[in-house]
């Protein structure tokens, strides 16, 4: 069983398909109930192949409920992908600076911790793996995005700290740090042609990633093929960080 938070989003849907195609049963966890239903309808012809759970990862009780529901139904969790995330502009002089900063930290960082705590018994039972979705903003400062940059830097740190802590229990923890991926999160770059062109010019491969290209890396890190990897933050950015 692979549990994917943010499973209704652009990356989440592609990750769900990749795990399904690799033979995993899949559970999608997302705060957006309508998109969850749409994701299951779009991606899975046979609904029994995919469980959906509406939950807010920033709320510990929601995560406990989601993990318990999945373990009760399926007995084990082989992979937890912590993909639920928010992006917001966040400048120091914004009137709502603190509120937005707090929101980003509670979803992007606490959300990873909350689901990890909730799923750890199920993961230990199957000697499973966690894959967190970090970002190139785990390494560099995005423009006007203090909360997002700090939150994704924390995801990288959390990945390393959890990897050390959970290794004795047989759970591996890694992260993928994508560059710009063509999902609803970056719809503004598709709408603003000039901004999109400028962003692509910075990328060595001169294009954004497709969600499938990120899903392949997530699947690899969760799979036995990555059995000697833990605590790694694997960059998949088309060469964005080269310049
Ligand atoms: N798209 C990119 O360019 C990009 C780059 C680097 C990292 N990422 C990361 O990839 C992950 C997935 O993002 P995406 O690009 O698919 O964006 P997306 O907006 O399509 O998907 C994000 C999903 O997370 C869900 N979500 C938000 N808050 C939640 C909460 N509190 N509880 C549960 N679910 C919640 C949303 O409903 C949505 O379905 C995020 O962690 C994001 O930061 C995205």
Descriptive report:
- With 243 residues, this protein is α/β, with parallel strands linked by helices.
- It has one domain (2-182, 211-230): NAD(P)-binding Rossmann-like Domain (Rossmann fold), CATH 3.40.50.
- Helix content is 47%, strand content 14%.
- It contains 9 helices and 7 strands.
- It has a 7-stranded parallel β-sheet with strand order 3-2-1-4-5-6-7, with helices on both faces.
- Helix 1 (10-21) packs across helix 9 and helix 3 packs parallel to helix 5 (110-126).
- The protein is globular, with a radius of gyration of 17 Å.
- It starts with a strand and ends in a 7-residue tail after the last strand.
- Bound molecules: nicotinamide-adenine-dinucleotide (NAD).
- Nicotinamide-adenine-dinucleotide (NAD) binds next to helix 1.
Compact summary:
With 243 residues, the chain is α/β, with parallel strands linked by helices. It is 47% helix and 14% strand. It has a seven-stranded parallel β-sheet with strand order 3-2-1-4-5-6-7, with helices on both faces.
